[in-house]
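Minutes, project huddle
Topic: does the predicted pose make sense with flavin-adenine dinucleotide bound?
PN asked that the exact inputs be recorded in the minutes so nobody has to dig through chat later. Recorded below.
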Amino acid sequence: MARASVDVVVVGSGPNGLAAAVTMARAGLGVQVVEAQPSIGGGARTLDLGLTDVGLEHDVCSAVHPLALASPFLAEFDVPARGVEIVVPELSYAQPLDGARAGLAWHDLERTVAELPRGEGADWRRLLEPLVRHAEAVIELSLSDKRSVPASLLTPRGIAGSVAFGRAVLGQGTRAWDRALPGETSAALLTGVGAHAIARMPSLASAGTAIMLATLAHTVGWGLPVGGSQAIIDALVRDLRAHGGTVQADTPITHWSQLPRARAYLFDTTPRALVDIWGDRMPARAARALGRFKYGAAAAKVDFVLSEPVPWAVAEIGRTGTVHVGGTRAQMALAEAEINAGRHASAPMVLASEPAQVVASRRVGGLAPLWTYAHVPAGSTRDMTEDITRRLEQFAPGFRDVVVASRCIPAARMHEHNANYIGGDIAAGAIDIAAMVARPTPWLNPYSGAIPGVYLCSSSTPPAPGVHGMNGWHAARRALSQRFGIRRMPSLAPGS
Ligand SMILES: Cc1cc2nc3c(=O)[nH]c(=O)nc-3n(C[C@H](O)[C@H](O)[C@H](O)COP(=O)(O)OP(=O)(O)OC[C@H]3O[C@@H](n4cnc5c(N)ncnc54)[C@H](O)[C@@H]3O)c2cc1C
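Predicted holo structure (tokens), as shared on screen:
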């Protein structure tokens, strides 16, 4: 790459890299994005994996988007006005259980309460209703930069919402977690959501994840974009280009000297990758602090091609875009303990999404994609296709017969497709309580790259992993103010 000069370079084109790039370009700066992979979008790409000859597309990483629907960045960017339709299914998520039973979390809280087994509905309402009533506070708390308190949280409503959130997280984050949800179905239903953290259970980290995502299930919904996750990326890239920005694929960055001269560099990478790239210019103490960043447990991805929908024993499960296949609360806690101890679980936690059940156009030529991943120990080399098939057969007898093709990316090879997912750590860093409040370092500016003008903007920074662009937006705010003296954030509205 020629060492010309530009105002801003963003390394990595995931949702956070692009959120930062769009924000900087809209502030009137010249922005160049460079991406290692041949395709743009990082953890939000939708690609034809060549498993069929009909052009069937798979979400290679993210598939389901409650966080995109809750994101203040994407709300201001106004995704629907950009022609991106996110379809919210009536059934947010499901938890199959033995004996042809299932927990069902409907978008409608009252329907969920009504359909849970006797007594459990009231428990679910007691836990979730105060959070749903204060959903804005739950979102503000969950998607802030974890270093400042948003003004809206200092109002009586904000305080009430924060207390409700804190109480629920504490209740579900300790061994006393059965007290609020003693029933088997409701306990499993919430625990399946907490499994998105790939953390020890119970723990405050998995409880925080569970409470936040369960609240979104009954508010914004767990939507799936028409066209897959890539639709969100394509809208960001269109806006970036319309504001003069450029995107260059196929350009892995291993040393800062490969980059054009710029006044600000934002890295949609892990902190350790930043140290590899800038180590020879970085103060040694800061390099050590960033280099200590901890990776977490992992996932192995398996994409299937199906001739028919998954034959769930409970047919209603087919109405959701997200199924948490982990059995009971105790079984999931055991599975997560096993992988965190470095062993494969005897009955691994599996997440599954059949996008065509929510967005019919995802079915092509009579075939449909099934997105799955299983939790595995970090660095696992195991092909999980058979393990996931067996797990799904347990709750959907006959599943094997509808599989036409499949592809597994073992955890140890995830980094070949996205350098941020080291050893299969899809959260780009361990999710524990320390990480939730002080990720990636306890520094006052968590986006600092320890060199003037160098910033981190990836999901290794606050607030959290997921497709919401908030990490990139918060990082861009710091860079605009510190490097360009721009304190007013640019409008993100279409047409501006
Ligand atoms: C299997 C899986 C399922 C998931 N499911 C969901 C879901 O359903 N919903 C949800 O909200 N989230 C989900 N996630 C998480 C979500 O995808 C990520 O949290 C999100 O994409 C993070 O965005 P990011 O921009 O920080 O990083 P990424 O999206 O990971 O993008 C980082 C980009 O930087 C590039 N890069 C890295 N290093 C370099 C380098 N040295 N030079 C050049 N380029 C580089 C990478 O190639 C990549 O394109 C899932 C992730 C995975 C892997």
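Observations noted during the meeting:
- The mean pLDDT is 97.
- The pocket of flavin-adenine dinucleotide is lined by residues 11-17, 34-37, 42-44, 61-65, 67, 252-253, 268-269, 273, 299, 301, 373, 418-421, 426, 458-459, 465-467, 471 (CB under 6 Å).
No decisions taken; revisit at the next huddle.
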